[in-house]
């Protein structure tokens, strides 16, 4: 018994030695030496060592061949690795060498492309410059050949088309500087030729008169000869009738024979035809001067000389009338004035109609007023001149509208459509001086701060005032009443607002690549411009001294203009949002036969929701109405949000019901339901403040009830409660439900759509057929 216990104890000690860390076997060995069977334990230990040696040997024998093979393979790999290293080194060297050549080639290519780009740029510049040089060379040739009228045409083409396209080169600047001098030279030369012509006419007028009198004498002789011939023929006809039976001697003497007739004399005279006045005189200087002065632009100095000559002539006539007796009379002077007045008005109408410079027309108007007042002081009637000035007012207004159209376009194109940053009180006062803006809340904010509108608001308002000033300048000194001036200015301003500015705003709203942020800023800007309309009314009243509440006073249409522009911007926002939503929906890629839906919303819908969230964050700057501060969210933001949600809901339903989707599994419907829940979560989060309760969720109510009906398969409730006001699925149309159910009707067993019913395939098909039949009966009943 003791021997068995000893053997068991030794076995335990050996297992402990085998399983214990060598640092902890000291107590175990002490227990062996403390006992009496030390020798027996040593025998067991040696036996255990021999067993382990045998196991090690067996293991080594078992793995020896594999070890030898591994060493052999390793030695082979070392050789191959050495070869590979040599190959890599060699390849690297070749690559470095080839790379140097490639780098050299690439550098040469870069230099070549740089040269090509420079050559292309040079060719492009020369393409624009060569027509200028050719045109200028042509001009020089025409000037040398004294072909001044074609030279003026060439000069006009050079100035208006060629030089602007060439660019700002030094030779272009020199040409531009020479153009006025060339025009002056051509005008002076043509006038000099005309004066030479007039001097020559004066010298040779006696010869011309003599020639003209000779021509008149010849013409009189011809007329007498023709008259005599007609009388002779008439006498012969009478004698023939009187002596009808008597033979006439055709060879007898006749005082009117062909030999002695005046016709021969005329023919003889025609052989030695006397040259006419037009043959003796070269009238080309007159025509050339007329054409040149027609082409040259009118200047105020030319009009001033024209009026001075007329005034000087009639001052002399008036003085002679009042200081002499019998030389001229009042009727003669008045007739002369009426003729001169009609000619002057016709000339002014013709020449002013070609004028496109409002400043020149304004100066011309002032000159005409001075001309009229001067002659009126001498007793000449000038009402027709003032009537003509009123006609010119319409032309002046059209020119102003064209000019301001360009100004408005430039302002809108250069605007950054961002709130104006204000860093100091001085800058704030400067903007307040340009635009009547008052906001107590903003005044309390420290600097720096931002005004709600962008730069185009004060600029447009300043341009409106400048236009009113321009209209007022033309109305001055026309002997009009304050009411007439006020009415004229208001009508012109209304044209500017309703036609010019309105079209420019529509252009800014409808142009391509306009973003939602820009449209939002346009809404804010037009709101503030609308608020400033009553300031424009006061401004006009102040400069015309006509109260704005005067009876029959014309009202400004600025409010309606800016309202229309704001509504157009709002509609553009709604349209752009819907287009963006459609672009995201085009990325939808549903697996309509999926066996099971996912737990997360589709990627395209997550991106769409993120876009809508960031977009509606911009709308927090929209004004609620015309009197609220421009940072308050308003009806526009709410309408845009509701419109986007409704469009998204409608588009999702169309995506589910479209004809290309022939089969829909319950798994696909579950995934679609997850996406709709994501839309509902977005609506519930309130992307735009101001909605009461779950108002925004109503945009998705049709989809929600339809999906609940199918996912819960609650057909018994739907069919039983249909038509009742308290129906759970009140918004589900039977035709819509039938269309979707028929898409699910042919689902295969693999999709396992009706696994929740735990019925065989025949019962599932029968259930669907039953519901389809009931829906068709329901639709037929409603249609009847």
TrEMBL record:
Protein name: Exocyst complex component
Domain Exocyst complex component EXOC6/Sec15 N-terminal: 44-213
Alphabetized InterPro entries for the sequence: EXOC6/Sec15, EXOC6/Sec15_C, EXOC6/Sec15_C_dom1, EXOC6_Sec15_N, EXOC6PINT-1/Sec15/Tip20_C_dom2
Source domain of life: Eukaryota
Keywords of the record: Exocytosis, Transport
Role of this protein: Component of the exocyst complex involved in the docking of exocytic vesicles with fusion sites on the plasma membrane.
Species for this entry: Cyprinus carpio
GO cellular component: exocyst; plasma membrane
Keyword Transport: yes
BP terms from Gene Ontology: Golgi to plasma membrane transport; intracellular protein transport; vesicle tethering involved in exocytosis
PANTHER family registered for this protein in UniProt: EXOCYST COMPLEX COMPONENT 6B, SEC15
Any Pfam family the entry gives: Sec15_C
Lineage: Eukaryota, Metazoa, Chordata, Craniata, Vertebrata
Region (Disordered): 225-269
Stated family: Belongs to the SEC15 family.
């Amino acid at each position: 018994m003791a021997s068995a216990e000893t053997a068991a104890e030794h076995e335990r000690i050996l297992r402990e030695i085998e399983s214990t860390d060598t640092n902890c076997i000291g107590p175990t060995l002490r227990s062996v030496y403390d006992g009496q069977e030390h020798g027996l334990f040593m025998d067991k230990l040696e036996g255990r060592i021999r067993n382990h040696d045998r196991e090690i040997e067996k293991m080594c024998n078992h793995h020896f061949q594999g070890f030898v093979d591994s060493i052999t393979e390793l030695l082979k790999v070392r050789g191959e690795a050495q070869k590979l290293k040599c190959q890599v080194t060699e390849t690297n060297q070749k690559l470095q060498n080839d790379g140097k050549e490639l780098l050299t080639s690439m550098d040469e290519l870069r230099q070549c492309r740089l040269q090509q780009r420079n050559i292309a740029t040079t060719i492009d510049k020369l393409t624009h410059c060569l027509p200028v040089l050719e045109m200028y060379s042509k001009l020089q040739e025409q000037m040398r050949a004294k072909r001044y009228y074609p030279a003026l045409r060439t000069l006009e083409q050079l100035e208006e088309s060629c030089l602007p396209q060439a660019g700002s080169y030094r030779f272009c600047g020199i040409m531009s500087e020479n153009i006025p001098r060339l025009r002056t030279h051509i005008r002076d030369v043509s006038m000099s030729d005309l004066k030479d012509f007039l001097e020559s006419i004066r010298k040779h007028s006696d010869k011309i008169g003599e020639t003209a009198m000779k021509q008149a004498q010849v013409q009189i002789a011809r007329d007498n000869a023709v008259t005599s011939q007609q009388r002779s023929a008439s006498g012969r006809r009478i004698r023939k009738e009187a002596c009808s039976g008597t033979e006439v001697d055709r060879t007898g003497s006749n005082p009117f024979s062909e030999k002695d007739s005046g016709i021969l004399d005329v023919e003889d005279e025609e052989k030695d035809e006397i040259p006419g006045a037009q043959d003796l005189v070269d009238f080309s200087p007159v025509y050339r001067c007329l054409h040149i002065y027609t082409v040259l632009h009118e200047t105020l100095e030319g009009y001033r000389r024209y009026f001075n000559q007329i005034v000087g002539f009639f001052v002399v006539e008036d003085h002679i009338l009042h200081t002499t007796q019998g030389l001229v009379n009042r009727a003669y002077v008045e007739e002369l004035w009426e003729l001169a007045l009609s000619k002057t008005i016709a000339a002014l109408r013709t020449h002013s109609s070609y004028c496109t410079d409002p400043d020149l027309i304004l100066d011309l108007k002032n000159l005409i007023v001075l001309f009229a007042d001067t002659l009126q002081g001498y007793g000449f009637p000038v009402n027709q001149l003032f009537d003509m000035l009123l006609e010119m007012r319409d032309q002046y207004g059209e020119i102003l509208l064209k000019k301001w159209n360009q100004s408005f376009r430039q302002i809108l194109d250069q605007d950054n459509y961002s709130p104006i940053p204000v860093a100091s009180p001085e800058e704030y006062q400067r903007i307040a001086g340009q635009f009547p803006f008052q906001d107590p809340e903003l005044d309390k904010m420290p600097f720096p701060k931002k005004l709600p509108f962008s730069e185009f608001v004060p600029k447009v308002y300043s341009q409106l005032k400048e236009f009113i000033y321009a209209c007022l300048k033309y109305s001055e000194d026309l002997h009009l009443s304050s009411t007439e001036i006020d009415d004229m200015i208001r009508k012109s301003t209304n044209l500017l607002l309703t036609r010019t500015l309105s079209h420019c705003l529509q252009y800014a709203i409808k142009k391509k690549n306009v973003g939602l942020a820009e449209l939002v800023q346009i809404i804010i800007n037009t709101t503030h411009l609308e608020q400033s309309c009553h300031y424009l009314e006061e401004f006009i009243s102040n400069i015309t001294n006509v109260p704005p509440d005067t009876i029959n006073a014309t009202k400004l249409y600025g409010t309606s203009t800016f309202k229309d522009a704001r509504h157009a911007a709002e509609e553009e926002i709604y349209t752009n949002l819907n287009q963006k939503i459609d672009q995201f929906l085009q990325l939808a890629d549903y697996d309509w036969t999926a066996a099971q839906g996912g737990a997360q919303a589709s990627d395209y819908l997550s991106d769409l929701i993120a876009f809508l969230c960031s977009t509606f964050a911009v709308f927090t700057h929209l004004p609620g109405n015309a009197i609220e501060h421009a940072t308050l969210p308003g009806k526009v933001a709410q309408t845009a949000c509701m419109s986007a949600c409704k469009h998204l809901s409608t588009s999702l339903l169309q995506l589910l019901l479209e004809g290309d989707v022939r089969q829909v599994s319950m798994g696909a419907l579950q995934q679609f339901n997850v996406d709709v829940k994501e839309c509902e979560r977005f609506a519930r989060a309130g992307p735009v403040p101001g909605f009461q309760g779950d108002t925004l969720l109503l945009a998705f109510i049709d989809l929600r009830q339809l999906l609940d009906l199918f996912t819960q398969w609650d057909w018994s409730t739907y069919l039983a409660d249909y038509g009742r006001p308290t129906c759970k699925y009140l918004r589900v149309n039977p035709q819509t439900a039938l269309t979707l159910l028929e898409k699910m009707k042919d689902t295969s067993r693999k999709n396992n759509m009706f696994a929740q019913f735990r019925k065989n395939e025949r019962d599932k098909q029968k259930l669907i057929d039953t519901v389809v039949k009931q829906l068709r009966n329901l639709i037929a009943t409603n249609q009847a």
